[in-house]
Amino acid sequence: MHDIVIYILGVSGLLALVSFLPPLAARFQVPYTVLLAAVGVALGGVIQTFAGEPGSGPFHDFLNSLAELDISSEVLLHVFLPVLLFETALAVDVRRLFDDIGPILLLAVVAVFVCTFAVGFALNLFTSIGLVACLLLGSIVATTDPAAVVGVFRDLGAPRRLTMLVEGEALLNDAAAIALFSLLLGMLTRKADGGAAEAALEFLRDFSGGVLTGWLCGRIACMMVEPVRDQPMAEITLTVALAYLSFVLAEHYVGASGVVAVVTSALVIGSLGRTRISPTTWGALEHVWRQLGFWANSLIFMLTAILVPRLLGSVGWDEVGLVLVVVVAAGVARALVLFGLLPLLSATGLAQRVSHSYKAVMLWGGLRGAVSLTLALAVTENVRIPDRVQSFVAVLVIGFVFVTLFVNGTTLRGLIRLLGLDKLTAVESAMRNRALALSMAGIRERVAEVARTYEVDAAATDVLVTRYEERLQAIDRESQNEAPLRDEDRVTIGLAILVNREEELYYAHFSEGVVSRGVMDMLAGRCARLLDAVKTQGREGYRAFEEPFIAFSPWMRFTSLLQRRFGINRPLARRLSMRFEVLVAVRTVLRELLVFDRTKLSQVLGEDVAFELEGMLVGRLTIVEQALSALKLQYPDYAIVLQSRYVGRAALRLEEADYRALHAESIISQEVLTDLERDLEKRRRAIERLPKLDLRIDVKELVRRVPLFAGLPAERVEGIGTLLRARLALPGEIIVRRGERGDAMFFIASGAVEVLVPNLAEPVKLGSGDFFGEMALLSRQRRNADVRALGYCQLLVLDEKDFRRLVNKDADLRAHIQAVAEARRQPVKPVAAQAQQTAG
C-alpha cells in the first residue's frame, strides 16, 4: 500500500473511532481522556497481535496501516502540540486568570521544579540511572492534563474558581515543564551540565524569550487582522497560522521555548481578539479551535497509547516498584506545594485563600496525559540517549500516566461529591431558587399562550401548566426553608451581576458597530477593574470607582499643557474625542442597566436591593451626564458630529444586515451584494476616522464676552486682543497656586472657578466675566490662594508686562481693576468674604 494511503487510512480511521468515544464516556460517566487511553491501549494490543497476519479487507488494512504509521515525536510536537496548547490558552479567561495569578504561578512554575527534583532524587536512591536522567523523567511527569479534570468539573458543576485554578496551572505548567525538559535533555545528550547557575539562566532565557516572542507575534496578528476584518475564513486562518508561526519562530530562530510562545500568543489573542476580530467571526473562531483541540488531543493520545503495548513488552516487578516510587514522590511534592507553600502565599497577602477541599481535589486531580506521553516518546527516539535510559523513561512515564488516569481519574468524581463541591452554597442556592421561580412563572404563561395560538385542547394544556405550577410551589417551599440572605450578600451579588452585564452590553454595542475598538478596549479593562473593586470592597468599591474614572488622567493633563504652552492642539483634541465617545457609551449602558435592574434584578434579589442598586447606578449616571454636559456646552458643534457618527455606525450595520437578507432571499445576486458591501466598507472607513476637534480659540470673541471690555470700540478690542493669550482649563485643574509668584492675571470668558482662600469655610466661586490674579500684580506679592477650575474654562491670560502696559494706556480700566482689588482687600465678615475675596 502506498505511504500516503497508509496515512490517510490510519488517521481517518482513528478519527472515526474517536467520534464515538465522547458519548460513550458520558454514558459510563468516566473522563473522556481515560476512555481514550483505554481504547488506545486496547487497539495497540490488537495491532501487536493481528497486524502482519495474512488477510484482506478494510479492517485488516486499517490495523496494518496503524502498525506501519511512522508517527514520530517530532510530528506530535510540531503538528499537534501547538494546536493543543493554543486551543487551551485561547479558552482561558485572562481576567480571571490574573485574579488568581499567584497560586497559579506557584502551581505552574514552582510546583514543576519541586516535582522534578522530588521525583528525580527519589528515583536516584533506588536505581543506578544517573541523576540527570532521573530529573529528566521528573520534568516529564510534572506536566498536568486539564482535559479529564475540567470535563469532570463541568459535569458536576464544580466551583468556577476551582476550574480556573486547574486550567491555569495546566496551561502554564506545560510551558514550564517542557522548557525544563529541553534543558535537561540537552544536558543529558551533551554529557555536561555546565553548573546549576548556567542551567537556571538558560531556563530563564528560554522562558522569557518565549514570552516575548509570543507577545510580539500575538500583537502583530492583532494588527494584521484589520485588513481581513469581516472575512471569517481569513481571520480564523490567521490564528491557525499564528499558533504554528509563534512555535517555529521561537524554537528555531529565537532559540527560546516554542511552547511558551504559543501559550503567550494565544493569551494575547484571547484578551484582545474580541475587539480586533469581527464580532460575527469570534464565535465561529472559538468553535473551530474547540474542534481542532479535540482532534489534536484525541490523536496525540491514540497515537501514543497505541505504542504502549510494545513499549511495555518487557516490564518486570522492578519497574512496577519504580512506578510506585514516582507516584509517591510526585504526590508528596504536589501536597507540599498545595498544603505547605500555598498557605504561605496566602498569608503574605499575595493570593486569595484556597480552601482545603479545593486543595484536596487539586492534589488528587493532578492527572497526566498527552504531553507527558509525547515527551516520553521523544526520549525513546533520541539516538544519543542510551537504550537503558530510553526504556527507563518510557516505562515509568507510561506507568505513572496510566496510574493517574485509571486510579485518580476514575475516582475524582466521587471525591468531589464526597467533599460537597458539586453542591451549591447557601447564597448560590438562594439565587438559583429565585431565578428558577422567575423563569418558571414566565414559561407557564408562554406555554398557555402557545397552546392558544395553536388551538391545543385545554385538557392537554392544563396538564402541562399544572406541572409548572407544582414546580413553582416546590421552589417556594424550598425557599421558605433556606437561610435568609444578608442584605450585604444580596447587594454584592447584584453589583457583580451588574458589572458582568455592563461588559456584555458594551460588547453588544461593539458588535453592532456603535462603539469603536479603542473605546471597547478601554471599557473592557474598566469593567475588569470595577469587578475587582466590587469583590474586594463591595458597595464602597463600586461607589468610589466612577469618579476617578471620569476624572482627567495625567496624560489628558499633559496634552492640555502641550496645547496651553506650545499651541499643539492635536493630542488634546484626540483625548477629548475619545473621552466624549466613552462618556456616551457609558451613559447609554447605564440607562440600559437601570431597566435591567428594575425588570430582572428586582425579581431575583428583591425590591429593596434593586432600589439600592438603582441609587448607585443613578449616582454613576449623574457623574457621567455632568461630564458629558460640560463637553457638550464647551463644544456643541463637535457633540453633534460625534452623535451623528454614532447613528451612522448603527445605520451601516443595519444596511449590511438588510443587504445580506435580500441576498438570502435571492432578491439580489452575489455580484450586487459584493458591490454594495464594497460601498459600505468605504463609508465605514470614512466614519471610523475620528473627527477632529477644533481647539483654536477666537480671542477677539472671548474679549467681547468679558463685561469689563464690553462696549469698547472694535479697534480697541482688537488692540486688547493682541495682549491677551487664550487658555483652556480642564475641570479640576489648579490654575493658580498659593505661594507662587504672580506673573499674570486671568479673565474668565466662559466657565467657572473656585478660589480656595485660607480660613474660609467655603470657596469663593467666580463665573464668566469675572477676573482674578490682579492683586499679586498690583501688590507685587505672592499668590494668597489656590484657584481651581470647576468645569471647562476658557480664560484670557494677561501677563505682568502687558498688564502694566494695558492699565497705563486705559485710565478707566486701571481704575476699575484697582477698585475691585481694593474692595477685596477690605476686612469683611466671613459670609461676605466668601462672596468677595479672591486669589491674588
Automatic annotation (TrEMBL):
Q: Which GO terms describe its cellular component?
A: plasma membrane
Q: Where in the cell is it found?
A: Cell membrane
The segment(s) forming the Cyclic nucleotide-binding domain are 708-814
Query: Pfam families given for it?
Result: cNMP_binding, Na_H_Exchanger
Q: Which GO terms describe its biological process?
A: regulation of intracellular pH; sodium ion import across plasma membrane
Q: Which InterPro entries match?
A: Cation/H_exchanger_CPA1 (IPR018422), Cation/H_exchanger_TM (IPR006153), cNMP-bd_CS (IPR018488), cNMP-bd_dom (IPR000595), cNMP-bd_dom_sf (IPR018490), RmlC-like_jellyroll (IPR014710)
Highest taxon above the source species: Bacteria
Would I find Transmembrane among this entry's keywords? yes
Q: What are the record keywords, sorted?
A: Cell membrane, Ion transport, Membrane, Plasmid, Sodium, Sodium transport, Transmembrane, Transmembrane helix, Transport
State the membrane topology. Multi-pass membrane protein
Q: TM spans, by residue?
A: 6-25, 32-51, 104-123, 129-153, 165-187, 256-273, 294-312, 324-348, 360-379, 391-409
Q: Which GO terms describe its molecular function?
A: potassium:proton antiporter activity; sodium:proton antiporter activity
Keyword Hydrolase, does the record have it?
Answer: no
How is this protein named in the record?
Answer: Sodium:proton antiporter
